[in-house]
Specification:
Layout lengths: L1 H16 L10 E7 L13 E5 L8 E5 L15 E6 L8 E5 L4 E4 L4 E2 L1 E5 L10 E5 L13 E6 L18 H4 L5 E3 L6 E4 L9 H8 L5 E4 L29 E4 L6 E6 L4 E8 L4 E10 L3 E4 L5 E8 L4 E8 L1
Parallel strand pairs: 10-11
Antiparallel strand pairs: 1-2, 1-12, 2-5, 3-4, 3-9, 4-8, 5-6, 6-7, 9-10, 12-13, 14-15, 15-18, 16-17, 16-19, 19-20
Keywords: Endonuclease, Exonuclease, Hydrolase, Nuclease, Signal
Protein name: Endonuclease/exonuclease/phosphatase
Organism: Kordia algicida OT-1
Amino acid sequence: MTKKLLIIALFTAFFTQISYGQWSLGDIAFTGYQGDNGGNPDGSQDEFTFVLLRDVTAGEQISFTENGWLAAGGFRTGENTCTLEFTMPLTCGTQVSITAVPFAAIEDGNGMSAGTLTGSGLSLATSGDQIFAYDPANTPSSTDESGFIAAIQMNGGWDADASSSTTSAQPAVFASNPGTSVAISPEVDNAVYNCTDLEDDDVAVLRATIHDPANWNTNNTTPFDQPACGEMSCTTLSTDVFDFTGSDFSIYPNPSNGKFTIRNRGIAIQEITITDINGRTLEVIEMSGSRSSQDLSLNLKTGIYFVTLTSDDASTTKKLIIK
């Protein structure tokens, strides 16, 4: 009997260790998208960003599709879908950016890869599009919409039906649960959440604020740098903590061949750190409180890198693309 109980205990412990959380409606919110491929500050294409509204563990998966939702239920076919498997635990408030070119998912708090992508990068149309997030273990269907997590409609209001690659009906689960999806109207090519401050500690307030289209910045010709407000907290925005943000410096040209300039808007910088997409530190440059712009020449292979500027009590990170 003792041996049987031990085997049962070990069996239970094993499956407890590999079990993952189950996605629910509202567990993420989209915070940005890019329809125009020319003029992105970091050179990437077809980028979209979302914020986690709960903690995730390594091994969890989430899918994204640009296929529209039919009025009769179910996804229209013919467009792209990708699935992200997280390779590290991430906390509520972390923003993740996914790009089609390069095909990558970046955790924007530390500038590291958020996980492994499979499928195809989304191809967001300039004439309007939509993105749905759903649980790949529970793909929504005409008879069951419980797998939906979030949605963004970039084609103005929701359409009567998914009659083309740029249109989509609104799934009933979003219509009956306000504050879990957002529709940007009128149609616009590029938009980001504008980082409206919150005074309430309830994550539901953050979710509702992000899903209010009045709290978004839009541009019909030039993409925004995503995410607009860096890492968030599920209680307050990180801009309430840091003394400076990513807008205080810029990198150009980007993409570059390894020679680039970091333009500093007068912030006393103690250190510049260069890391690769796997989080490995490649170079640390001591700045000793310099407030000047810096010209750098680095021998880097083609790929994505991250430049982190650190002051006495804050840091911020930008993507750098080497051609």
